Amino acid sequence: MSMLDIRDLEVDVAGQRILKGLNLTIEAGSVHAIMGPNGSGKSTLANVVAGKPGYEIVSGEILFDGDLLNDTEPEIRAQQGLFLAFQYPVEIPGVSNMEFLKAAMDHIRSARGESQQSAIEFMKSVRAIATELKLNPEFLKRGVNEGFSGGEKKRNEILQLLLMQPRLAVLDETDSGLDIDALQVVAEGVNRYRSETNAVLMITHYQRLLNHIVPDVVHVLADGAIVRSGDRELAHELEERGYAWLTQ
Amino acid sequence: MAVKDLVPAEYAAGFVTDIESDTLPPGLDESVVRFISTRKKEPDWLTEWRLQSFRYWEQMPAPRWAHVHFPEIDFSAISFYSAPKSSADGPRSLAEVDPELLRTYEKLGIPLHEQEALAGVVKERPDVAVDVVFDSVSIATTFKEKLAEAGVIFCPISEAVHSHPELVQKYLGSVVPQRDNFYASLNSAVFSDGSFVYIPPGVRCPMELSTYFRINEQNTGQFERTLIIADKGSYVSYLEGCTAPMRDENQLHAAVVELVALEDAEIKYSTVQNWYPGDKDGKGGIYNFVTKRGACLGDRSKISWTQVETGSAITWKYPSVVLRGADSVGEFYSVALTNNRQQADTGTKMIHMGPNTRSTIISKGISAGHSQNSYRGLVRTSPGARGARNYTQCDSLLIGNSCGAHTFPYIENRNIDATIEHEATTSKVSDEQLFLCQQRGIDTEKAVSMIVNGFCKDVFRELPMEFAVEAGKLLEVSLEGAVG
Predict the structure, then answer these.
(1) What is the structure's pLDDT at B448?
(2) How do residues B2-55 score in pLDDT, each as one tens digit?
């Protein structure tokens, strides 16, 4: 059984058809990259998989570990091990990162049938990950994403990924807005997360991310459907030739 | 699930206690005022004072300037006095209190068993002395003896009229005069009971003092009167809590609270107000029209109001401080949450009269459902208030698209070297914020409560420890189902 199985997915956003019969299968242990021109539906794919309100599934199926996800609440999907690293993480003023992460972990752990961590245990694991990602542990006291630079926000997303250890990580343009050093740190984090039991679906505009996180499969999304899939070489070809030759 | 999917919250304190009561027939005239006064065996000066207040009230129009809407109140349909029958002569100790009443307070989570508390059995609320006002009368005051050792007087005001007439006569109406406003005049005429506190010079009150108000009877108004006097160099922390049963009719609550702080004294007054807010369509609920004011009479005195308002169909209240003493300090920390069809027009007045007086106002308004939430605040400095300072921060949080938040700040500065700062923000709990929480496994209800609690942090910090926890929980309950 595939971990993620998307069949003939058609999705409307604000009354407009964005995904037009998308098929995608991801196995445990693999990393898939989705590339494609602006407006092809890449972020819509990420959001609809995570269950964001406002993304209406008109037809088709999303299966996660064989379970139909179409009508599942987003928090249940998260508790089942589906993680979305946001392109633009929002701020939640007044709620500290510490409080937010602890609440998230408590929910995830109780869904997994694990006991809650003590505050001390929890702090220890967060601090260790923060250090690896070169995030000043002081950030834990600040509001969620409040006053964070673009790079800090993205590193915070990766921190949550490493903390929660989901089964499937969807990375929505995690490389956008990062300088080379920050990109390196983020990529190291994702590579450390990779294992035989989990999988990554990363959405990107740029080939350069794939130099750091090497994918097993590269897909090209154009006008709401996957028009070509290939290996790492496909990304290089796209860089040289653009998308036009695939969409004509 | 989006923010717009709003459904009503449940009111947990909405049960009715089946108890026999002596209730006056509805309507108000001089005979009613006399009846209340006679019933309480009051001295002549107080009877006269009430009658005079009644005459003022008769000539006053009801205020219409608040940003709230409701049909005119029919004062001939309200009963102005109700007392549980069994306490006709007043219980002298907890042992004499009707067990049905004790069960009421047990259900509300208010411990009235001081023996157990003293023995350390009740751990949740250590060292809190409680006065309880049920409909119109005070039914029990705990820890009286322990307080008496420190010289602290904490008793029903109806009792203080007899035991400490000189204090009551001196200060009653000294902060909120009889003709202050429509509802204050009404209260002065018909006030039934309430708490009286006196802290002698130099005494730090050994425990938190607390009063719980409960309206039970149908078609009755509750008009309690609280008077707190902190003598020179003393300190007291006081908390009031309020609940009422769920009823289809609106019920009037028009209280008056007067605080007096002499030289170097400090009064910290905290309110957790959870009157029945009405149902999701706005039927029923309490009209909470309350006048609360403190006077910093002495130099270096301090009065601090902290309020968490989640209840009432309509809230109309402005806990204020008159800063007369030099270097005196006034503070107002407020969280006002409205949901469904609730309306709140609340804020404060800081009246700077003495030199170098300082005031701080932190107001957090949260609106959900179809509610309307207004902050109204006045900062005034008189020519004598040299070097006065005020800082005001006024934040509004909107949940959903059908509610309103309004801010009406008034600044009257008559002093060239005063410093007055005003900051205001309005924000919304966005679908994006909720989705971020959900995507991390947190359900929307928990997410909203976490966001709202974060928003209120600056105010909760000011509440006594155990009440801060209670306030957080209350917000959670009041928002329960706010996002469905």
Answers:
(1) 87
(2) 444 433 345 656 556 655 566 777 888 888 888 888 888 999 999 999 999 999
Among the partner residues A51, A54, A160, nearest to B440 by beta-carbon distance:
A160
Query: Rounded distance, CA A49 to CA A31, Å?
Result: 16
pLDDT of residue B144: 74
Q: How far apart are the first and last CA of chain A?
A: 34
Residues A111, B441: C-beta atoms closer than 8 Å: yes
- Residue B52: CB partners within 8 Å, gap ≥ 6? B178
With contacts defined as CB-CB under 8 Å, which chain A residues touch B436?
86, 89-90, 92, 144
Q: Output phi, psi for A197, to 5 deg.
A: -100, -15
SS (H, E, C) chain B: CCCCCCCCCCCCCCCCCCCCEEECCCCCCHHHHHHHHHHCCCCHHHHHHHHHHHHHHHCCCCCCCCCCCCCCCCHHHCECCEEEHHHCCCCCCHHHCCHHHHHHHHHCCCCCCHHHHHCCCCCCCCCEEEEEEECCEEEEECCHHHHHHCCCEEEEHHHHHHHCHHHHHHHCCCCCCCCCCHHHHHHHHHCCCCEEEEECCCCECCCEEEEEEECCCCCECECCEEEEEECCCCEEEEEEEEECCCCCCEEEECCEEEEEECCCCEEEEEEEECCCCCCCCCCCEEEEEEEEEEEECCCCCEEEEEEEECCCCEEEECCEEEECCCCCEEEEEEEEEECCCCEEEEEEEEEECCCCCEEEEEEEEEECCCCEEEEEEEEEECCCCCCCEEEEEEEEEECCCCCEEEEEEEEEECCCCCEEEEEEEEEECCHHHHHHHHHCCCCHHHHHHHHHHHHHHHHHCCCCHHHHHHHHHHHHHHCCCCCC
Predicted complex ipTM: 0.95
Q: How far is CA B262 from the centre of its chain?
A: 22
**Cβ proximity of B292 and B346 under 8 Å:** no
- pLDDT the model gives residue B259: 97
Strand partners, B311: none
Would you call A53 and B1 a contact, using CB atoms and an 8 Å cutoff?
A: yes
DSSP state of A115: P
Instruction: Give B444's contacts in chain A (Cβ within 8 Å).
Output: 75
Please answer whether residues B422 and B360 qualify as being in contact, where contact means their C-beta atoms are separated by less than 8 angstroms: no
Q: Mark yes or no for CB contact B436/A108 under 8 Å.
A: no
Average pLDDT over residues A143-147: 90
> How do residues A103-132 score in pLDDT, each as one tens digit?
999 999 999 899 888 888 888 999 999 998
If one compares B27 and A188, the residue with the highest pLDDT of the two is A188
Closest CA to A51 of B434, B400, B451: B434
CA A163 to chain B, closest CA, distance in angstroms equals: 11
In A, minimum Cα distance to B454 occurs at: A94
Per-residue confidence (pLDDT) for residue B291, from 0 to 100: 94
Give the model's pLDDT for residue B378.
Answer: 95
For chain B, which ranges sit under pLDDT 50? 1-9, 87-92, 113-126, 484
Q: What is the mean pLDDT of residues A149-178?
A: 91
Enclosing H/E stretch for A202:
strand A199-203
A52 min Cα distance to partner chain B (Å): 7
Tell me the pTM: 0.80
Q: Which residues face B420 on adjacent strands?
A: B390
